[in-house]
């Protein structure tokens, strides 16, 4: 590993974590817009969308602090193979927590959910999503991997992220951009997920992990050999300082890993 990941710890989610997450996301947005006029971001489900909404729906404080939603392209880091209005759908969650709450004068991002045909065939869903990514990320030139400007991830209490689970054979897969999983230890069992190489290739990777329920796994990830082999640990090891963790105090109370101050 080159330089270590950035670990931020905040006392309050509303007053500190969310404004810092906003600053971080908008830094990536502004850089991406300068680079290629579009901001391509992959988002997760779980607890992330709620915190992300707190960050992004706050009023702008001036230049450089504007969320330019119409220039965003939103993809899913993982998705469950269920209809888009099913309560297990990550898209439904992101829609309800964030997209539906965007004031109309801000405009909407372009969102890329999974296709709803053939949901019973998870491999088909993964293939369709990969085809979509190829049409966008490899429209002009062939590329080995899609380059997301930002990938926003959660961390499960078992150290999983996206739908990449501890000790699962998917962690060793290198060839496809999107994989299906039919034996997810966390229900629902059928899902699709970005591959580990795709996540590691992201320009920036931001984790959001909050609450005391994450403390044990974060201690493991940041302090132990065993934890460095968990999916989140593999991303820390493989992507180094491209990775930033946004945590609250209860999540990292006993984690002895150097913290950074604020993003500001
Ligand atoms: O199943 C999933 O879990 C992870 C972690 O969720 P959290 O609630 O512990 O933050 C999430 O990032 C992923 O998108 C989701 O499908």
TrEMBL record:
Q: What is this protein called?
A: 6-phosphogluconolactonase
Q: What does this protein do?
A: Hydrolysis of 6-phosphogluconolactone to 6-phosphogluconate.
Which family is it part of? Belongs to the glucosamine/galactosamine-6-phosphate isomerase family. 6-phosphogluconolactonase subfamily.
Superkingdom, natural source: Eukaryota
Q: Does the keyword Acyltransferase apply?
A: no
| Gene (name only) | SOL1
**NCBIfam families tied to this protein:** pgl (TIGR01198)
Q: What is its EC number?
A: 3.1.1.31
GO terms (molecular function) for this protein are: 6-phosphogluconolactonase activity
Q: Name one Pfam family in it.
A: Glucosamine_iso
Q: Which parts of the sequence belong to the Glucosamine/galactosamine-6-phosphate isomerase domain?
A: 15-242
Q: State the PANTHER family in the record.
A: 6-PHOSPHOGLUCONOLACTONASE
Pathway in which the depicted protein is active: Carbohydrate degradation; pentose phosphate pathway; D-ribulose 5-phosphate from D-glucose 6-phosphate (oxidative stage): step 2/3
Q: Which reaction does it catalyse?
A: 6-phospho-D-glucono-1,5-lactone + H2O = 6-phospho-D-gluconate + H(+)
The record's keywords, sorted A to Z, are: Hydrolase
Under the heading InterPro entries, the entry gives: 6-phosphogluconolactonase_DevB, 6PGL, Glc/Gal-6P_isomerase, NagB/RpiA_transferase-like
The keyword Hydrolase appears for this protein: yes
GO annotation (BP), single: pentose-phosphate shunt
């Amino acid at each position: 590993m080159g330089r270590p990941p950035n670990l931020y710890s905040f006392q309050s989610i509303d007053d500190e974590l969310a404004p810092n997450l906003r600053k971080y996301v908008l830094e990536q947005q502004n850089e991406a817009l300068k680079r290629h006029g579009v901001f391509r971001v992959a988002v997760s489900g779980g607890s992330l969308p709620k915190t992300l909404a707190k960050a992004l729906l706050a009023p702008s404080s001036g230049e450089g602090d504007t969320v330019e939603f119409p220039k965003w392209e939103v993809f899913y880091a993982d998705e469950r193979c269920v209809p888009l209005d099913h309560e297990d759908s990550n898209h439904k969650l992101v829609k309800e927590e964030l997209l539906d709450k965007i004031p109309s004068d801000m405009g909407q991002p372009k969102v890329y959910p999974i296709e709803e045909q053939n949901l019973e065939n998870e491999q088909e869903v993964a293939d369709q999503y990969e085809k979509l990514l190829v049409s966008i990320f490899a429209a002009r030139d062939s590329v080995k991997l899609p380059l997301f400007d930002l990938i926003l991830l959660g961390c499960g209490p078992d150290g999983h992220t996206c739908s990449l689970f501890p000790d699962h054979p998917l962690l060793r897969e290198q060839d496809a951009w999107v994989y299906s999983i039919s034996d997810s230890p966390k229900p629902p069992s059928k899902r699709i997920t970005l591959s580990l190489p795709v996540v590691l290739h992201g320009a920036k990777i931001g984790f959001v992990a909050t609450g005391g329920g994450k403390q044990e796994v974060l201690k493991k990830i940041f302090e132990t050999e065993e934890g460095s082999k968990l999916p989140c640990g593999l991303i820390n090891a493989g992507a180094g300082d491209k990775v930033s963790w946004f945590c609250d105090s209860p999540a990292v109370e006993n984690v002895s890993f150097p913290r950074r101050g604020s993003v500001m």
